[in-house]
């Protein structure tokens, strides 16, 4: 079970890392206006969080063999039978929720930072 969780954290974490890279590039592209950059990053992080929650909610309906985690696991570490499929789905749900909570916290932080910058009157550096 620990091997499945470790592999799921690796696979889902890698996907979240690439999404975070994309969000970071969007934030960087709005660097001329820090308030807008923070709000855009927060909005995208909120979308990422919603996607991860959706994946967590649908983990029990997905076939384990259709996941990257299943492909990365060695043949001996893959669970077998209905009980194994339920265990696998439960672990995947937990991992998706783990990252969804962190993406949500990042989204709230970025949105609040953007609102604070807006309230402080921080404007575009290109006037």
Summarize the structure in words.
This protein has 127 residues and is mostly helical. It has one domain (2-119). 76% of the residues lie in helices and 0% in strands. The protein is built from 4 helices and no strands. The chain has helices spanning 2-29, 34-57, 68-72, 81-119. The termini are far apart. The model has no long low-confidence stretch (mean pLDDT 92).
Structural class: mainly alpha
Kindly, what is the distance between the CA atoms of the first and last residues, rounded to a whole number of angstroms?
A: 57 Å
Count of helical stretches: 4
The share of residues in extended strands comes to under 5%
How much helicity do the residues have?
Answer: over 70%
Instruction: Report the principal-axis shape.
Output: elongated
Q: Helix and strand string, N-terminal first?
A: HHHH
The largest pleated sheet is described as: none
How would you concisely characterize the structure shown here?
With 127 residues, the protein is an all-alpha fold. 76% of the residues lie in helices and 0% in strands.
Could you give the topology of this structure?
Elements: H1 2-29, H2 34-57, H3 68-72, H4 81-119
Helix pairs in contact: 1-2, 1-4, 2-4
Which structural traits does this protein have?
127 residues, mainly alpha, single chain
């Amino acid at each position: 079970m620990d091997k499945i969780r470790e592999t799921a954290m690796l696979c889902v974490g890698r996907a979240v890392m690439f999404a975070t890279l994309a969000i970071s590039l969007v934030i960087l592209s709005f660097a001329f206006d820090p308030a807008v950059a923070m709000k855009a990053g927060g909005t995208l992080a909120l979308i990422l969080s919603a996607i991860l929650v959706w994946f967590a909610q649908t983990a029990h309906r997905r076939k384990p063999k259709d996941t990257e985690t299943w492909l990365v696991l060695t043949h001996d570490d893959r669970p077998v039978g209905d009980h194994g499929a339920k265990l696998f789905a439960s672990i995947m749900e937990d991992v998706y929720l783990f990252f969804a909570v962190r993406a949500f916290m990042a989204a709230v932080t970025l949105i609040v930072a953007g609102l604070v910058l807006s309230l402080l009157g921080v404007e575009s550096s290109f006037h």
